[in-house]
Specification:
It is a single chain. The protein is of the alpha+beta class and 98 residues long. It has one domain: GMP Synthetase, Chain A, domain 3 (2-Layer Sandwich), CATH 3.30.300. The chain is built from 5 helices and 3 strands; from the N terminus they run H-H-H-E-E-H-H-E. Strands 1-2-3 form a 3-stranded mixed sheet. Strand 1 and strand 2 form a beta hairpin. It is elongated, with a radius of gyration of 17 Å.
Length: 98
């Protein structure tokens, strides 16, 4: 017995599913939090104490002032990388705190 259509790859099915669900923004924000270590790297991930959203802002708490300054200086490129990773503009701003 043959199928009437060709099966789709799993990544295409997931993308279609994400487009259709009403909680798309919340799902993408969760994906950002999960992707943080992969995108920023092990060193920055290790100095991150807290990571959460307040509306469209990603709040990052770090262990020292030096790291706060470093992340603050690179916050736009980090936001762009994370948004690209989840294929959506869920991060409008990154706030770095100690």
């Amino acid at each position: 017995m043959a199928f009437a259509r060709n099966p789709k790859p799993m990544n295409e099915l997931l993308k279609e599913f994400i487009k259709k669900i009403p909680q798309k923004t919340e799902l993408k924000r969760g994906m950002v939090l999960h992707a943080w270590p992969d995108v920023v790297g092990e060193k920055i991930s290790n100095i991150t104490k807290e990571l959460y959203f307040e509306g469209p802002r990603l709040i990052v708490k770090v262990t020292s002032e030096a790291w706060r300054y470093e992340l603050h200086a690179n916050r736009y490129s980090i936001a762009k990388k994370l948004n690209n990773y989840v294929e959506s503009d869920v991060i409008k701003e990154i706030i770095v705190r100690t």
